[in-house]
Amino acid sequence: MDTSPSSPPTKKRKMATDTTAAEQEHQFPLPAILTHPSATPPILITQGAEGRLYKTTFFSPNIPCALKYRPPKPYRHPILDARLTKARLAFEAKVLERCRREGVPVPAVYAQNAAAGWIAVEWIEGAPVRVKINEWLGQRPKNEEEEKAADAKDQGPLVELMKRIGAAIAGLHRTGVVHGDLTTSNMMLRPPTRKTTRTTEQPNGVSEEEAKAKLLEGYVVIIDFGLANQSQSDEDRATDLYVLERAFASTHPRAENLFEHLLESYKQTFGKKGVSVLHKLEDVRMRGRKRSMIG
Amino acid sequence: MALETLQIEHVPSDHHVYAALFRDVQNVDFLQAQLIGKNPEFEYAFIDASVLISRTHLFAAIFRALNTLTEGTLQTPNVHSDIVIGLSPTNNISESYRRYGLTPFKTRDVLVIKVVYPKLSSENSTISSSEPPTPESTWQHLTTHIQGTPVPVTDEELAKSTDWAKVRKYYKLNGVPGVERIDTADEEGRRREMEGLVVSGIALRGL
Ligand SMILES: Nc1ncnc2c1ncn2[C@@H]1O[C@H](COP(=O)(O)OP(=O)(O)OP(=O)(O)O)[C@@H](O)[C@H]1O
Ligand SMILES: [Mg+2]
């Protein structure tokens, strides 16, 4: 978060009144906090069921941030709604801070006004893990036979990524937090900050092979703690893993067989506790299967 | 040297924030006396620069205070004192003044913030002149009354003042796994991590 002395006051800044382009694009009125000037207009990234996520800058023009806004729900009683939103966002902010102190990879909190329905957190560079895995799988042989043969050989980088994810989740669980909505969309893969010396050694750039190997490099950062809870129970932890397992299988069916590496690394990182969580996971799976048979 | 106008993202455009940094200030006791005496000519946030690690750290406290000002939920008599206590991750107001504000004969480097914004007429009752202060008049006033050497409010200059032992204590950064897991050789990595925790501490106070 480096900052340089900011420009003189005479510099023209984006004012609320000339963010109309952004606003039209958004189709939604901006939350009040984003109507004040910033060096670049906020960009709407996602519009979920619960809220909207904007990319903007915080404190200084060179600090990108993710601002999560939960607008009032017209169908809920206004006072109750405000209270629920505030409690939810406050909890999300506290969980992020706790994780950060404990060394679990999550975004830092920059600012919040939970009562007004927003929190601003560190922007994580890179892409959601979902996107990266699909990019990787997209480059794999389409033919099933060939793929099987190739699997054993060169799924190495993906296996390594699965292990990093497992370790990150173990770290999260160890702090007494369960995520509540683990998917490969709620994890970012932040590319490593490269040393410039490497590229100067290779004036011809990187080979296709190398570029491919680099695709899955990076640091796994867990995001979106909107449904997180405090829990130390095997059951809740196993449910967290089960939700991810199901989401993973439907998002990346071609890599489903690699999920075991994630679980193995979770267990390795978490030690004894990990063993009993994985044991519980079998019960949770069983119940899940029964439920889907009935339903 | 001149007063710097801070451009802080997402602050109302009619709110102006000025900053200056003075090194080796000789009359901290005089400045403190003006605050205690509620001298209306000294409506400033005076911060002991040894507790600041960077501009971002400073901006976090200012942002927080401006936000409470806009919401009408100031915790102290005015936005300037709210900036000082805004640095604190805890709710103990008098302790916050002691830690982040001036301490005669201890504070050496002083960071000054002046906020100018459209006040309600009732808020102006203590001020005789109706002319709002300008960067020039503010700079004039500060350099007349502060006996110290003005330096630019850059990360480099702020880093020279930082007392890390204090920062670590006030923001509870000692023995924190999130910091300790970073290689001690990676000083910049550690500094950034601590800055992140300091900013979060400021943002979360009161939740
Ligand atoms: N801190 C961040 N840095 C970079 N990108 C982010 C960050 N937070 C969110 N995103 C991007 O925005 C998308 C949606 O964010 P998020 O998952 O937090 O919102 P949501 O799913 O709408 O929230 P909720 O489930 O609480 O309603 C993410 O998948 C990611 O692409
Ligand atoms: Mg999400």
List the topology elements.
The complex is a heterodimer of chains A (295) and B (207).
Chain A: H1 20-26, E1 43-47, E2 52-57, E3 64-69, H2 78-102, E4 109-113, E5 118-122, E6 127-128, H3 129-138, H4 144-154, H5 156-174, E7 177-178, E8 187-190, H6 196-201, H7 208-215, E9 219-222, E10 229-230, H8 234-251, H9 259-270, H10 272-294
Antiparallel strand pairs in A: 1-2, 2-3, 3-5, 4-5, 6-8, 7-10, 8-9
Helix pairs in contact in A: 5-9, 8-10, 9-10
Chain B: E1 4-6, E2 16-23, H1 28-36, E3 45-48, H2 55-71, H3 79-86, H4 93-100, E4 110-116, H5 135-145, E5 149-151, H6 155-161, H7 164-170, H8 177-180, H9 187-204
Antiparallel strand pairs in B: 1-2, 2-4, 2-5, 3-4
Helix pairs in contact in B: 2-3, 2-9, 3-4
Subcellular location (chain B): Nucleus
GO biological process, one term (chain B): tRNA threonylcarbamoyladenosine modification
InterPro entries (chain B): CGI121/TPRKB, CGI121/TPRKB_sf
Structural Rg of chain B: 17 Å
Structural class of chain A: alpha+beta
* CATH homologous superfamily title of the largest domain in chain A: Transferase(Phosphotransferase) domain 1
- The level of helicity of chain A is 40-55%
Q: Strand tally of chain A, please? A: 10
The average pLDDT value of chain A, as a whole number, equals 87
What percentage of residues of chain B falls in helices of 4 or more residues? Answer: 40-55%
Structure in a nutshell:
The complex is a heterodimer of chains A (295) and B (207). Chain A is an alpha+beta fold. Chain A has 10 helices and 10 strands.
What does the model show?
The complex is a heterodimer of chains A (295) and B (207). Chain A has 10 helices and 10 strands. In chain A, helix 5 crosses helix 9, helix 8 (234-251) packs across helix 10 (272-294) and helix 9 (259-270) packs antiparallel against helix 10. Chain A folds into 2 domains: 21-122, Phosphorylase Kinase, domain 1 (2-Layer Sandwich); 127-294, Transferase(Phosphotransferase) domain 1 (Transferase(Phosphotransferase), domain 1). Chain A is of the alpha+beta class. Chain A is 47% helix and 14% strand. Chain B has one domain (4-163): CGI121/TPRKB (PF0523-like, 2-Layer Sandwich). In chain B, strands 1, 2, 3, 4 and 5 form a 5-stranded antiparallel β-sheet that branches. The mean pLDDT of chain B is 94. The structure holds adenosine-5'-triphosphate (ATP) and magnesium ion. Adenosine-5'-triphosphate binds next to strand 1, strand 3 and strand 5 of chain A. Residues 45-46, 48, 50-51, 53, 66, 68, 107, 121-124, 128, 181, 185-186, 188, 223-224, 226 of chain A line the site of adenosine-5'-triphosphate.
